[in-house]
Structure formats: structure tokens, C-alpha cells
Amino acid sequence: MRLSEKYHFSDFTTQNYRRLLRLAKQSYPIRTFDNYSQEEHFVIWRHDVDFSIHRAAQLAKVEKEEDVQATYFLLLHSEFYNLLEKDASHCAREIIRNGHNIGLHFDASYYAITSEEQLEKHLRREQALLEDLFEVRIRSFSFHITDPFTMSCMRQSYAGLLNCYSDFFQKEVTYCSDSNGYWRFKRLEDVLKDNPKKLQVLTHPALWQDKSMSPRERVWRCIDGRAEKTRNWYNKVLKDSVRDNVGPEDVI
Predict the structure, then answer these.
(1) Domain containing 28: what range?
(2) 157 with 164: CB under 8 angstroms?
(3) Which helix (H) or strand (E) holds 71?
(4) Residue 144 within a domain
(5) For residue 133, what is the domain's CATH number?
(6) SS3 category, 28
(7) What are the CA-CA distances from residue 159 to residues 107, 124, 139, 188, 202 (Å)?
(8) Looking at the DSSP assignment, which residues form a beta bridge with residue 45?
(9) Domain count, the chain
(10) Is residue 24 in a domain?
């Protein structure tokens, strides 16, 4: 079997994403983490923005066109984007303008957290940063790269924020994830056809591209795109300020 078949490369395109949204809407009311009922039949659509805030903004537009509201969990310690950059913060505000919710994608390992008391302290700090930066209310959080400690944190909320990995979501809600660019457990299309009563869908926007690619190619595209954008910014600054842009092969 080819890798493209084993890992369903063709599933992860923008066109197929739109089709899956429409398939979900046929069977479910699509809820967010602040408007669901534990008793109802629902799907919650969640994005952990690990790699590309730009790609997140693109999917947010697709969702708006399909009348779907999702929650985008933003990471303050990403190796791939910086929310304080003008372009990145503009993308985040575009997501908000398109009617979506913003949540906190929280990296407990950044602080070497070992207790729930420490967890709440740092959650409050990062919540305040996001709320101040984007002038929105942050109501929920998801853990970034879970470990045994974070998976043991199963209370419904911490620091007043709903926990996407709470006991309820781990034990009573079916979970479908595209982590690392392939379906970790079962294809989303198959899950939607099975129609479980409660469903949480996790996607990472950078892993959905306009054409079919391997998982690694999708992530590399984000890396290369960020590098190219940085090079272009540097070249433009020197050009606009009428300064020499001296390279190793320049000849005077």
C-alpha cells in the first residue's frame, strides 16, 4: 500500500475540508465550548493552531462561508509563529472578525508545571495576555503536546477556563484528531457517518492545504513560507531605507 493511501493524503485538502463541514452539518448542531449542553447531540469543532496562523485565517473564512463557528486555540510559545508580529496578530483578528472564538493553547512544559496550583497560576497569566492583545474573552483552553501530568488534569475547568481534556470530554465525548497530519484513530468521514451522540473534532489548520501533500510536506510548507516572508521583509527594509543589501557573491 502506498503511503498516500495508508495515511489518506487526499483527505487533507481545502476542498475536502469544506465537504466534511457540510457532512457534519447534516447530522449535528455545531457547537462551541461555551454554548453546548452535555445532554444534547452535538459536535464541537476545535483548532489547535500549532504551525500557521495564516492557514488558520484561511480555514476560518471557509467556515464562515459554510456557516460554521469554531474555536481557534492560539499558542503563545509556538516555534512557528509569533502573535506579537503585526501580520500574525492581523490573522488572529481576522479569525475573530469571521465570527469564531479564540481559546488558549497552553504549553505546560514551557513552565515545567507539576501541580494544578501552578497550572492555574500560569493559565491566568496567559489568558490575560491573550485577552489584552485581542480584546476578547478567553473562555477555554487546550493543552499543547499532552503528557501524563496534563492528561491527569481532568477537572471541568481551571482558572475559570473550560478544560478541553476534562473528564467529560475524555470519557463521554467521541474524539477525532488529525494530529501529525493523519487520522490518529479513525477517519473523520467515517466518524461522522457513525454519528456518535457527542463529538469533538480537533484539526490543525496547517495540515489542510489546497493540494494533496504528505504530512511532512504540509509542515515544511509552513517553515519555508515563514522563512521566505522573513527574507522578503529584510530585503524590503533595506530597499526602502536605501541601504546596500550585500551578499557573498556581490561584485563591485
Answers:
(1) 3-240
(2) no
(3) strand 71-75
(4) yes
(5) 3.20.20.370
(6) coil
(7) 15, 6, 10, 32, 23
(8) 201
(9) 1
(10) yes
Task: Return per-residue pLDDT of the chain as tens, 252 residues.
Answer: 899 999 999 999 999 999 999 999 999 999 999 999 999 999 999 999 999 999 999 999 999 999 999 999 999 999 999 999 999 999 999 999 999 999 999 999 999 999 999 999 999 999 999 999 999 999 999 999 999 999 999 999 999 999 999 999 999 999 999 999 999 889 999 999 999 999 999 999 999 999 999 999 999 999 999 999 999 999 999 999 999 998 887 655
Query: How far, in Å, CA of 34 to CA of 32, rounded?
Result: 5
Residue in the structure block whose three cell numbers are 495508508: 6
Separation of alpha carbons 35 and 44, rounded Å: 10
> How far is residue 150 from each of residues 77, 183, 201, 244, 250, measured CA to CA in Å?
17, 22, 19, 51, 53
Whether 139 is covered by a domain: the verdict is: yes
What is the DSSP annotation of 175-224? EEE-GGGS-SSS-HHHHHHH--SEEEEEE-GGG-BSS---HHHHHHHHHH
- Cα dihedral 74, 77, 80, 84 sign: positive
C-alpha grid cell, residue 2 = 502506498
Q: Which amino acid is at 139?
A: R
Phi, psi of 58 (to 5 degrees): -70, -45
pTM, to two decimals: 0.94
Which positions ≥6 away from 35 have C-beta within 8 Å? Answer: none
